[in-house]
Design goal:
With 308 residues, the chain is α/β, with parallel strands linked by helices. The protein has helices at 2-37, 40-53, 58-70, 74-87, 92-109, 117-128, 146-154, 178-189, 194-204, 218-221, 240-250, 277-286, and strands at 136-140, 162-167, 211-215, 229-234, 254-262, 296-298, 301-305. It has 12 helices and 7 strands. The chain binds S-adenosylmethionine (SAM). S-adenosylmethionine binds next to helix 7, strand 2 and helix 10.
Length: 308
């Protein structure tokens, strides 16, 4: 009898807890089901309830953020994903989805690019992490504006930042390759220049006012350059010689403590089949004998901090 009584008491004592345990997977499961069926508004409500029960569950928070994106609220999704990364910078699903959201924002504005999801997310977080309240950023190679847009969005709360975007934006598209070149040529036939496409895209993205585009060759622009930068992003001419001269000529404009960022760095030691042109240049100018600390690689984005 006393055993039965004890059992009942225990059940009553733990009842709220047991219901909670039962309820949590239900909310999560039904959210996922609704999500898969494309009913994002209802899925969103279910995720919200599940998060109330388990606010530290990053998977739930990430799915919730992505659900915002699927509902068309890309900016809310972006903000939520950044909050998750603030709590745990190593939580890679949030970085990947941040990149997805940014690439979608770019596509909506007309700015197609070449970034992987992780690269897009990493660029945003790298720029956002710059402590200077008035940072100077130089982007070499802007094309349709995806990376310009990402940089500008990451600095939207720093109105005194300076973002220089250097690109030849050659009217016949000869400074770009393959599909992009054909696209530029086709638009040029309709009387729209490459540069106009860029400015239109940046207006569509709502970031044009933040940018200072400079139309010219990086090799010429650098001749009159004098400003130190918190970060220089090298993504223009991708031939070995082109990247080499850009890194050689621009790296000294990175201020001490600032960063040099390169795209398309493939390194054998990091598992690539061979070193790419940008990879060889990174080894030559940013190696152990240079004044840059050992860099980090996220997919093919190589980031190195200037030490002295
Ligand atoms: C790969 S795209 C840049 C992509 C861009 N950073 C993004 O992520 O959206 C390369 C760009 O560099 C430009 N470019 C190539 N060589 C250049 C040079 N020597 N000077 C200036 N721009 C150049 C091309 O016009 C092209 O738009």
């Amino acid at each position: 009898m006393s055993k039965i009584k004890y059992g009942l008491n225990a059940l009553l004592h733990y009842y709220p807890f047991i219901t909670e345990l039962e309820t949590l997977p239900n909310y999560e499961e039904s959210a996922k089901e609704l999500d898969q069926k494309g009913n994002f508004t209802e899925a969103h409500k279910q995720y919200e309830k599940a998060i109330q029960l388990e606010p530290k569950n990053l998977d739930l928070r990430c799915n919730f953020a992505v659900c915002h994106g699927k509902m068309g609220n890309l900016q809310t999704a972006l903000d939520e994903l950044c909050l998750i990364l603030d709590d745990d910078s190593d939580y890679s699903p949030a970085l990947e989805n941040l990149g997805r959201v940014l690439i979608m924002m770019g596509l909506q504005a007309g700015a197609e690019g070449w970034f992987s999801l992780f690269e897009a997310g990493h660029l945003y977080r790298t720029i956002q992490a710059i402590e200077n309240p008035q940072p100077v950023i130089v982007e070499l190679g802007s094309c349709y504006g995806l990376s310009s847009m990402i940089i500008a969005k990451a600095l939207k709360n720093k109105p005194n930042s300076k973002i220089y975007c250097v690109d030849a934006w050659e009217g016949d598209g000869s400074s770009v390759f393959g599909k992009t070149r054909d696209n530029i040529k086709a638009q040029a036939h309709q009387g729209i220049s490459f540069y106009e496409i860029y400015t239109q895209n940046m207006q569509n993205a709502g970031v044009y006012e933040q940018l200072s585009p400079i139309q010219g060759y990086t090799t010429n622009v650098v001749k009159d350059w004098s400003e130190e930068a918190d970060l220089i992003f090298v993504d223009a001419d991708h031939s070995y010689e082109g990247v080499r001269s850009d890194v050689r000529d621009w790296k000294d404009f990175v201020k001490v403590g600032g960063q040099l960022l390169m795209h398309d760095v493939e390194l054998e030691i990091a598992g690539s089949e061979q070193d790419s042109g940008p990879g060889l240049v990174a080894k030559e100018f940013l190696g152990p004998d240079s004044n840059f600390a050992q860099g980090s690689l996220v997919d093919t984005l190589y980031l190195a901090r200037r030490e002295s």
